[in-house]
Design brief:
The protein is α/β, with parallel strands linked by helices and about 375 residues long. It contains nine helices and 18 strands. The longest helix is centred in the first third of the chain and has 24 residues.
Length: about 375
């Protein structure tokens, strides 16, 4: 088989990159060992919050902000192409403090953001509870990032896969044996269905990226970090917007379900919901909103964040011509989906990306020393 581009991995990153490449007229084959979007994309909270996730101004904040700015158009595009709603909801994000020390820390961070011209409001405890009456009486104020939002990753992952397929991308199930290197460049992949030749290969295999032979990345460039989540059901809905504390977060859905998350566990590929993990996420949920005590727990799960050593994603070209990356997003894969898709698509097409990819290049990790030719 011969194609223009092979994308390894059909999570939200691989599917979104495939969508943009197919829309640009490229022949794209997406390889997935199981079900598209069934791993980290399926398990994520769907928080779109540069203000909370990127605590310092710099390239990572800029990347997150650029992606958030693209989200309304990206969501409309995917919905139009797939015929599905993706659960995009505005309302902003609250980062709440539950003691005076944390409140002072948040106020200091808000001052830096405001001086840089970034949109954030500092709320006192009464103002917080006017927005979210169900929050604990212990709340000592919050930052309100008014322009932020959330999305339902399960809906988004399925819709993006459908949109990419309808745009012309071909999805193939099975195991990738290796990325083929010939003549000093990536020339395709060896797949269990046979050799697939391509002008470019995009590695978007998430936590499993280093298990793909020929990946061209150094040891430890991407590792799995387990996160556990529980879902409670509230009727009528108890919360309207995402709420962070210093221990975790609550993500309300339109139907009243609230996602309580999450753990950060260095346990390798041990996918399990544990008693300690559930206790952690439910304790933080009750600390933030004590009224959740009577809400039934309706679901729980765990999966793996594809974590990089510095928490920033690995994007764009590497040291091997023809090999591109859309991996290592750590805990911000859903937030960074639009900018990843646009930037990696541009890199594959030989065009200037919408943001500077140098801070997110695999070269920062010493990738040039790790090429495994085949």
């Amino acid at each position: 088989m011969k194609t223009d581009v092979v994308v390894v991995g059909a999570g939200i990153q691989g599917s979104a990159v495939a969508l943009r490449l197919a829309q640009a007229g490229k022949k794209v084959v997406v390889l997935e060992r199981a079900i598209p979007g069934a791993e980290a994309s399926f398990a994520a909270g769907g928080i779109l919050s540069p203000g909370v996730e990127a605590t310092e101004l710099g390239p990572f904040y800029g990347l997150c902000a650029a992606s958030l700015a693209r989200y309304p158009a990206f969501a409309r595009d995917v919905e139009a192409a797939s015929g599905m709603w993706v659960g995009y909801r505005g309302g902003g994000t609250l980062e709440a403090a539950f003691d005076d020390d944390h409140a002072r820390l948040l106020a200091g961070r808000a001052e830096k953001l405001q001086k840089a011209g970034l949109p954030v409001a500092v709320l006192d405890d009464a103002e917080v509870r006017r927005l979210e009456p169900a929050l604990s009486p212990s709340v000592r104020g919050a930052l309100h990032f008014q322009g932020e939002a959330s999305v339902d990753p399960r809906l988004l992952g399925r819709a993006t896969y459908i949109a990419a397929a309808r745009a012309g991308a071909t999805f193939v199930t099975g195991q990738v044996r290796r990325i083929v290197h010939e003549g000093g460049r990536a020339a395709g992949v060896d797949h269990e269905s046979g050799r697939i030749d391509a002008d470019a290969v995009v590695l978007a295999a998430g936590s499993w990226s280093l298990q793909v032979e020929g990946h061209g990345l150094p040891p430890g460039a991407v590792r799995p970090v387990r996160g556990q989540m529980a879902v409670v059901d509230t009727r009528p809905p108890l919360l309207s917007r995402v709420v962070f504390s210093d221990k975790g977060y609550l993500v309300p859905r339109a139907d009243g379900r609230i996602l309580c998350g999450s753990t950060m566990e260095e346990v390798g590929f041990q996918k399990a919901v544990t008693a300690a993990g559930l206790r952690h996420v439910l304790d933080l949920a009750l600390e933030v909103a004590p009224a959740l005590a009577g809400a039934p727990v309706v679901e729980s799960w765990s999966n793996f964040r594809p974590a990089s050593p510095d928490g920033s994603p690995i994007l764009g070209p590497g040291t091997v011509p023809g090999l591109f990356y859309a991996t290592g997003h750590t805990r911000n894969g859903i937030l960074l989906t639009p900018i990843t898709a646009d930037s990696v698509c541009a890199a594959v097409l030989g065009k200037a990306p919408p943001v500077d990819l140098a801070p997110f290049s695999p070269a920062r990790l010493g990738a040039g020393r790790a090429v495994r030719a085949g």
